[in-house]
Amino acid sequence: MSSRNHFVSWSKQNEQASLDVSAVGDFSFQLRSGEWVDDGLSCSYNCAFGYSERRITTRIAEVLKDFPCASPKWNLPFREKQTERLLDFIALGEGRIFYTVSGAEAVENVLKIARLRRDAVKVLSRSASYHGASLGALSVGGDWRTEAVQTFEDWTVRIPEPSEDSQGVELRKIVERVGAKNIAAICMEAVTGSNGVFQAPDSWWQAVNQLCSETGIYLILDEVTSGFYRCGHNFAFSSLPVKPDMVCFSKAISGGYSPFGAVYVSEEIAKTFTEEVLPCGGTNYGSTIGIAAMAGVLDLFEDQSSLDLIAENTRIFEKLSKDLGNNSLVDQTRVVGMLAAFDLNQTAPSWQEFIKSGLHIGRSENRLILAPPLTIDPDILQRIFEKVNLVLEEIA
Ligand SMILES: Cc1ncc(COP(=O)(O)O)c(C=O)c1O
């Protein structure tokens, strides 16, 4: 752990918040001191296929030869073809993709589109959520990262936790009070990620569907963390009784091999920009390297043996998470696919304690989060849980 000439994100700069990393293996990284650390969080949920996924690196190597850089305005058959594959994989029917370079920008752009199309500024969102570090994305997020900055709170209307409003009764009252015509969208993580792996009940999603179809309010889903098989299906929404108008993607879309993000926009919304300017864009949007990384991820999902491995790992992960939930220090366990939160009945061991034990995981106050690479070697997956148990034994 060291001091550096560049900032460490989301940290006091005098904290031991960065790591001296000298090498990466397949699913682990090596510290300069020589020890190896198993990655139980897929870096930041993005390196979902480890650090040496050939299908991704091969695609990137190819594009570096042919098209290392390209304007977002160039029509490239390569970009066109990979977008077609992405649309098939999303399977939401007709629609269009808008590419970005991050999850936050995916969210920023859908918020813009929703506000423009609805001619309304308010967005409904839940408090236990995170949608990115730019101001608009922060304004719809609600965790500690929102507090430090001035956000557009008067554009945001907080809704109760879906588990406490399972029929959406309070949600409907809020819409009536604020006025549907003033509301552009409901913006939600399909399954909350870093804020604790909370799922909304089906009855709540059905109430949201009903409300959106009655009022025209858009449903925006953020699948930045939950997407690309993290939650047991291609996307978390695939197993939910819900049809989003717009969906945000990032992280695993490129496996962490390139900064990249994307937005799905339903055809109904997309076609309104045929005669009108789409006021969204960025210099590096739709970068060919990002598209190539995404192509590698889609190649992986077309390979049945990779899907079988992910399914097997998901089964092992669910079982080991349930076993860990029996530890006397664990109060509550929530597991969805290969994403799990463990609420402890006391303060969780520090992040550094886990690193010392050779494990990288998510940790906040009394909560631990695990989201290992989907294609991890099952033996390493097993070892990750053994390490969590060992660290917990030390504080029991
Ligand atoms: C659910 C969710 N949405 C959006 C983002 C923002 O993504 P990025 O950090 O790529 O801007 C994150 C990042 O952690 C996230 O977890």
Task: Report what the structure shows.
The structure is a single chain. By secondary structure, the protein is an alpha/beta fold. It folds into 2 domains: 54-301, Aspartate Aminotransferase, domain 2; 305-395, Aspartate Aminotransferase, domain 1 (Alpha-Beta Complex). It has 13 helices and 15 strands. The strands form 3 sheets. The chain has a 7-stranded mixed β-sheet, sandwiched between helices. The chain has a 4-stranded mixed β-sheet with strand order 1-2-3-13. Strands 11-12-15-14 form a 4-stranded antiparallel β-sheet, with helices on one face. Strand 1 (21-24) and strand 2 form a beta hairpin. Helix 11 (304-325) packs parallel to helix 13 (378-395). The chain is globular, with a radius of gyration of 21 Å. The protein starts with 20 loop residues before the first strand and ends with a helix.
Features of the shown structure:
single chain, 396 residues, alpha/beta, Aspartate Aminotransferase, domain 2, Aspartate Aminotransferase, domain 1, seven-stranded mixed beta sheet, four-stranded mixed beta sheet, globular, binds pyridoxal-5'-phosphate
Give the overall silhouette.
globular
| Proper CATH architecture of the largest domain | 3-Layer(aba) Sandwich
Rg value: 21 Å
CATH topology grouping of the largest domain? Aspartate Aminotransferase, domain 2
Proportion of residues in extended strands? 15-25%
